[in-house]
Amino acid sequence: MKAVLFDLDDTLFDHTTSATNAVNAWVAELGRTPTAELLAQWFDIERRTFDAWLAGTYSHQGQRRARLREFLPLIEQAVPGTDDDLDVTFDGYLAWYRRNWAAFDDARPAMEVARSNGWRIGVLTNGSTPQQNAKLEHIGLADLVDVVCTSQGLGYSKPAVEAYRLTCDALGVEPAETLMIGDNFELDVLGARAAGLTAEHLDRAAGITLTQLIRSAGTP
Q1: Does residue 156 share a domain with residue 73?
Q2: Of the residues 55, 82, 99, which one is the last residue of a structural domain?
Q3: Cα–Cα distance measured from residue 88 to residue 165, given in angstroms and rounded to the nearest whole number
Q4: For site-directed labelling of 49, which of 2, 74, 176, 193 has its Cα 20 to 30 A away?
Q5: How many C-beta atoms lie closer than 10 Å to residue 124's C-beta?
Q6: Angle formed by the axes of helices 15-29 and 36-54, nearest 10°
């Protein structure tokens, strides 16, 4: 093994907790009461609109606007009539989201073990290039990453085999020399294996940590 690729959201970066805290604070700021049902609806809308962006249905900003058009009526808020006003409204959520950005506790230790193995380190993420790089900087992991590849920058999103192979090219390694780790079994494991990489599923619910996966893969 010569390199490891990490997924970002909910692998290195705790998106779910960050977004949960942000939605609850933002909804309260708008004068409504946060509930578990509203939170579940937000994540469902987020998933569907984000997938539509990956499929080319929306621009990145367009999927944010679409999210608001679905969610605001659920909290009895008027939907702004212009894109500019929608963007200003979404900025309210984004401000809370950024305040809550955090890495998982095992992220940096795992990356340091990978570095001590002599491996190059890449991040492969379905997301926008500016935001995903900003996350890595904010949570203090950017200094350990050699290459960041996003679906926006590559023109391919996971699980397309091209996404993994282009990222390996950027790292200067072969797929067969590369380990992929992520929380999404379909995108990060099955997709990576189809592209010729070794891949491990980060199942935090089962008590698995990033450090365990890196140490196991680095053991002869």
Answers
A1: no
A2: 99
A3: 38
A4: 193
A5: 30
A6: 120
The tokens describing 211, both together, are 């450090």
DSSP H or E stretch at residue 4:
strand 3-6
Question: Residue 217 has which token pair?
Answer: 């893969």
* Per-residue pLDDT, 218: 76
User: Do 5 and 165 contact (CB within 8 A), yes or no?
Assistant: no
pTM (whole model) above 0.85: yes
What angle, rounded to 10 degrees, do the helices at 107-116 and 210-217 form?
10
Alpha carbons 163 and 169: distance in angstroms, whole number: 10
Q: 150 - beta bridge partners?
A: 125
**Burial, 80: exposed, middle or buried (Cβ in 10 Å; 0-12, 13-18, 19+)?**
middle
Q: Which of 128, 107, 96, 90 is nearest to 14 (CA)?
A: 107
Residues 6+ apart with CB under 8 A from 67: 45, 46, 49, 90
Q: CA 215, CA 175: separation in Å to the nearest integer?
A: 19
Average pLDDT per consecutive 10 residues, the chain (220 residues; last block may be shorter): 98 98 98 97 98 95 98 97 97 98 97 96 97 98 98 96 98 98 97 98 96 85
d(CA 104, CA 135): 12
Give the structural domain span for 115.
3-14+102-217
Q: Are residues 142 and 193 in the same domain?
A: yes
Per-residue tokens: 55: 């499929």
CA 180 distance to own-chain centroid: 14
